[in-house]
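Fig. S4 source data, part A: sequence.
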Amino acid sequence: MADLTLAASWYRSSEVFEAERTGVWSREWLVFSPSARLDAPGRYVADTIAGWPMAVIVGPEGTLRAFHNVCAHRGGPIVWPGHGAAPNLVCRYHGWAYDWDGWLKTARDFGGELPPGAYRLPPIRVERWRNLVWINLDADAPSLAEALGSFSTQCDEFPLEGFEFTHEQERVLQCNWKTYVDNYLEGYHIPVLHPELNREIDVRKYRVEVFEEDGYCLHTAPTRGGAANAGRWLFRYPNLALNVYADGMNVERILPDGPERTRVIYQYFFADPDEPGNEETVKISGVTLDQDQAICEAVQRNLDAGVYEAGPLSPKHEAGVGWFHDRIRSAVGLSPPERGST
């Protein structure tokens, strides 16, 4: 683990963001959607991650297909952002039609000859794990099962497929995506920032265990009464937080929308969607998100001020942050700042 944080410039630099687009977001397996939104032919989900517009669609035979949501003609969208039904793949701009493998079928009223087989929607790898659909822009990446490794086995005892996806909330944060991830990867701030959570868990025993080979961290903390946490609090590089329990789970996706803007999408799954306690779970998570948003946006303003360059990482509390920073440095091919640099 590096002694110092990433340099402040890495949280606002357009050059670093572009390096991350290719070094991080085009190489990693990313959760894209709950399976429930892709449960029948013609259903689709479309979103943009780090500037990459993508769509996952269920083909007529029930197979998941994924493409860059960009027409080969003049860049129009094949489906509108969001989720819904698309009985065919037709550009929403000029009506070019594609088959389910992404190859151009017809160019509506084009008025000239086009070489057969010359145009295709760029394909994207897509796989399903439990009740989540994942995508990867890297055609040479290992399979999802291989990439997940022991992350998958951490969830073996939980009936994820029996959890019903009920709803989501989305936040737009005025901060770099790494500012938010840094905050998630340590419990050091909990006594100061999250009084409600601090009353429930023994923060003195909060631990973040790094599983470097499989690219994730496990958070653990006993309750104030000494009971062990019955669930799993997991973070998978680069942007997935998964909190799973016997009666449900929360999926948190951290999505960059540029150097200083981040979307946080928080999705709720419950074993019993009608359980009265679910409402309290959602309420508590909303309070925590409010607190995290406020501090992350305040930190980003300070990172932008030109006063702070880099700071020391706590070997007791911030091993997860250091691991994350080392992975980012490796992904973009740059070196850490020297000790004491300002």
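Fig. S4 source data, part B ends here. Residues 336-342 have pLDDT under 50 and may be disordered.
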